[in-house]
Write a structure and sequence with these properties.
- Chains A, B, C, D, E, F: GO terms for molecular function: oxidoreductase activity.
- Chains A, B, C, D, E, F: Keywords: NAD, Oxidoreductase.
- Chains A, B, C, D, E, F: Pfam families: Epimerase.
- Chains A, B, C, D, E, F: It comes from Sinorhizobium glycinis.
- The structure is a homohexamer.
- Helix content of chain A is about 35%, strand content about 15%.
- Chain A is α/β, with parallel strands linked by helices and about 270 residues long.
- Chain A has a 7-stranded parallel β-sheet, with helices on both faces.
- In chain A, strand 5 (about 105-115), helix 4 and strand 6 (about 160-165) form a beta-alpha-beta unit.
- In chain A, helix 2 packs across helix 3.
- The longest helix of chain A is centred in the middle third of the chain and has 22 residues, at about 80-105.
- Chain A is globular and about 50 Å long.
- The model of chain A has no long low-confidence stretch (mean pLDDT about 95).
- The interface between A and F is medium-sized, with 33 and 33 residues.
Chain lengths: ~270, ~270, ~270, ~270, ~270, ~270
């Protein structure tokens, strides 16, 4: 059967999650172009690799040539210094969108983050239309790309799905992840749904597995057709045995962003 | 066990869907009265048939005598000339409601349509309270019956369920139906729920199977107790192999009404 | 200064309100074409008159030739027999919209009515997006035109404003009108705003003066720029002296439609 | 593994539901303190019992000493005389909250009731933020505790979950319970989720099993992680065979509170 | 002209606000019955006085005989000990509602308070349907009467308006009152509107003058027809000169309840 | 009388609007510090000036020393090249917020823009919580500062008001400005309200005069106490005489952003 895409660009492809995506997205494209700042290993016959910084506009323009869709998971993955955020996430993502526009890519799937809305509470049960409340400069950069991609859709017709990934790790590592976890397999399912849904326009979706505790409402992304199949129940006993409960009045316990709300300004932290 | 109804009138009973309803609704009534413009075949012992036009007020008044509930699936099933819409769907449905009122029927289940709200987008994720946006004169006539039935409930206490059926076919025939399909079995489940729910007042419900892609929110019809049991996943590979994807910017791809939004005025079409 | 329109068609022009509109809308067009079933009197130099039934499609098609906009206030103005509603309001309005489409009119301002939403309560404080709840066949026909005009906008780009007029009389005649009254001057202001607003698409607006008691929320029609300047306070003492209060538990006191909710089916009433 | 609580106080522990809670909550605490007006039987090794009236502030203060969390299911369980409601439910619950505050309990799970919102209709599909509409003095007392517990959370940081239990009986006893039933096992699951969710602040949750007919929206309590596992389908045939349907226009059929809306004032009833 | 009511009962009539109401409501009734725990002075010819405690059910039943409507402003006006709240506000208001029901009064206007929703923030811009968040036991008692009166309306058809009065003082006394002030004249206007609106059912209204800073949305009470005519601008310069601004991060600055959120539990305060 | 602030920093102070703010805000502070890339003329005794680029972090840090509040109107005022947007608006505003945080300023009033939500339609009547839909890179940079300032409030307690200014010009220059105009006097009133409101936390407000056509809902900013006193009616005749109406189907007519939605990518435009 024909694959939905000929060439798919994956940024941030050298990391652990990138490895999962290489495996999981292979059925969707004839060729995967893998981009990262560091070399990608174990290249498969259907893969090609490019090493560059996202802040390098020329390199990004070149990397997006001949690409049908982009899975943009690259950039700084955590709170860090402003200059890094500015270069890797803001300037870098702008370069990706410009590359996509100039080279005619049809769709971008972007790894946004819970940290774009980290200062909303669990009890608020927000949906994907709630105003942003970033909990970090990292989160602010995610908001930037969400609005940038909205602009590229409204004005240039470039489709985007922004995935607000909660906690994508091999296993839930603490009590918060018992509700915030996104399994690698569900992450692949979510990106696959985002790439294959017939129409996405500009869509924001939360990214969690089917955990029993549900603090947000993802129904407005129902047109993606994402059906998570994992949950954290099989990890619960072990996690609860190893990690004491958080004080329910601690900010990290009631804000969606978890411990991100507790960290200070990265430039202050750096100077400590 | 006692059946919920003694006599049930089904309009539009001669068609393919009518055949499914005859089979599926038999457990709900001692007697099915089958109405259509053309003769209904293979009458069963629990069935009786009547042939007449819905626009014939006297015939409808007679057909609704002694009826406890009405499953009103008759009338023009597609976009067509105004005079036909006016006679079959507007005048015809008025006759049904007047017959129900004068003869004391308790409940009407009406085959409304996605085309009453065809100009809403998938991304809007509307619920059943959203303002109507018909995509055709056919859709306008569905809106008419939805408001007419609201009036008969508010003023005369005649209960109605208006089912906005998306795509009820033997199998999903194109990529849109991968999300819009209502299997015949689920259609029977939906009508059954509408007839047996303890209280419906005036209820509008979307009509789809449990497909993975969910572009609308049917929670306000939760008091019907409809639980779809089919979905389109087993048809997906075959459909996707045979039908190319729609351009995501094509109106037929992002409006709920699909290709109905592309057709012109029926009176123009007729004169072509 | 150039007038916004060259030729304006006013239907229902022979009545009391029509007379007000002739006077009030004169500044908006070089020529007013006045249509009614009965002859319009006292024609002014800027006016021309046509006598026909709205149900006569050919006559309507002719009357809409060379027209830039239509103020459609014709048709049955009260609850009446179904056949009259069907001919004058449903078929008649369809003819107007077809005439507008075929002859290239740019905008229609339609006299809808509170009776399209007459079964909502004052306490519900609905806005213009609330689902319709007609209180009469007359109200059902208003809902029909609201959905028909939505269709003509979405598919054919013909703009419409549907004015849900509450009580447009020379003076408030009873206690309900102390909140539901629309003065003739405010009615002219509302139609003028509807004709001159830069963009209306398909807009529904409530039609009331600036009375102190405000049972509905018209903010979603704010882009019309309608600013009522009358209110009922100067009539209050006289009305309250002459009319006893309604029982607050009487349907006519708590439904927006007032006494319309108390009348039975017009066909029953006729046979009394 | 460590249990989440050391000592748990259960009020209303002598009744049928109390017996279920004793069994079901045993895994959550080292010790269950059981309180009721009547003696609790068959004390287990992990249990201790106290007999007192909730209206006795000193007794309640003593009973809440050394308690980590309280499952407050005591008080009058049905509509009854005002003086009883005032003493058992209003004064009694105040005593519980004061005891919890003074003795440093961390969380209270309170048996509120559908009767706090009994005058909402099924068709309204309210969520847990809808304004209260009690159907009885009993329901008014439930509203009182919901607002009292909100106050104790906002001002004193004492967490509460208010469970609006619909119909918790061994089996569904009538047609209404086909949708309103909460199985004992699901009731235990709901209380367990309320006690173990990492953060509840002040949460209101509906309490029903996973019945097919869903008249309310519980998504705002999703952070409890309650997953019902029972439903009424296996009882449907028997219930429908024994109980005739309600008139869909009867208040008891369309208000959530069921037959509670039909009873008069308890002080009138008492004097009959 | 006939007055709307024959006899009006005012509770809490001996205080400063009671004096304003006596003067302001005189045009609405032939006779004012004035109730308070202390003697009302300067009785006018249209007035009669009764001295009793609201907690005395027999006295209240007697005082409500022959009364057409009740303006219930009595009870504890501030945070105070639980036993006082319970007797004066909870038991006392129950007595008023029972008296109204048994004696056939048509409407009650109740002095609820901002303190029923004191833990909402200014930035939330709540409307009158927002869930309650009392800031004191006093506020909890206001919530109690709001739900009690809802019950008396839904079950017994006794109309009520609950006025959430913000700050009704002769003049704004601090910076918060620059937005929360309700002038005495506007208070009289609000009670008058509540007594004369044709239909109120059960209505909750905020009570503020037309101050420029508007932290809440009162549009759902629009059917009262209340039009405030005062505002605080003429007091601004003097208030700002005398009172320093609050820290914008202080709870008393961002919660609607103001300094009420800072006070502790009244029983603790009493024992200090 | 004491002024609310000692030192106020105004960025973008050399422009026409800056001149208005210098005059209008003088009553609010003992000293105005005026910043711009070009020299500010006609310094008054209460003023001091600094010339620097916002992209210069050290200069901004120095300029924000000893400042109590900042009126941040500097940066690129129109769509322009990405590198300029990045330096002047993104990096520059970050510098302002870091300066404010490090130097302890209490509040920032930021000139956001309608172009942050330019792709919403007039008919949508959005409020300030609607998701952003920027119509330009300029608009994307406004969204960036709105989310950045939200972060500085949530994490560091620095208050901000983001003013989405529509069209602030000496007079309305075209038909769109008949509804989008913000007079200079009203602009000063809006900034004054933002600086003097007792509590703003993080507030977004639309910025328009009191024009009759109202396409958005600003009620959620009611706690600012902004009362516009100008409107465009006195300019209407002249504007309508000189400017032809827009086609109501033109994007510039129905999107809030006006002609901004028609311009292409600035980097394409530059290379033309």
């Amino acid at each position: 059967m024909t694959k939905p895409y000929d060439t798919l660009l994956i940024t941030g492809a050298a990391g652990r999650l990138g490895t999962e995506l290489r495996r999981g997205l292979a059925p969707l494209a004839n060729r995967l172009r893998l981009a990262d700042r560091t070399e990608v290993r174990d290249l498969q016959p259907n893969e090609e690799a490019m090493v560059f910084d996202l802040a390098d506009a020329d390199a990004v323009l070149k990397a997006t040539q001949g690409v049908d869709a982009i899975v943009h998971f690259g950039g700084a993955p955590l709170e860090t210094a402003w200059e890094t955020i500015l270069d890797s996430n803001i300037r870098g993502s702008y370069n990706i969108y410009e590359g996509a526009r100039k080279n005619g890519a049809r769709r971008v799937v972007y790894a946004s983050s819970v940290h774009a809305i980290g200062y909303h509470t669990l009890e608020a049960h927000i949906d994907t239309d709630a105003p942003v409340r970033p909990d970090s400069l990292y989160g602010v950069s995610k908001c930037f790309v969400e609005s940038l991609s909205r602009f590229y859709w409204d004005k240039f017709g470039l489709e985007s799905v922004c995935l607000r990934i909660f906690s994508s790790f091999p296993e839930p590592a603490d009590r918060r992840m018992l509700w915030s976890w996104l399994s690698f397999d569900d992450c692949v399912r979510l990106v696959t749904a985002s790439l294959t849904a017939p129409r996405v326009g500009h869509t924001i979706s939360f990214g969690m597995s089917d955990n029993s505790l549900k603090p947000v409402d993802n129904s407005k992304a129902g047109h993606l057709g994402y059906l998570p199949q994992d949950n954290t129940e099989r990890f619960r006993a072990a996690v609860e045995a190893q990690k004491p409960p958080l004080d329910p009045k601690a900010p990290a316990a009631f804000y969606l962003g978890g411990w991100f709300v507790d960290i200070g300004h990265p430039d202050d932290e750096a100077s400590k």
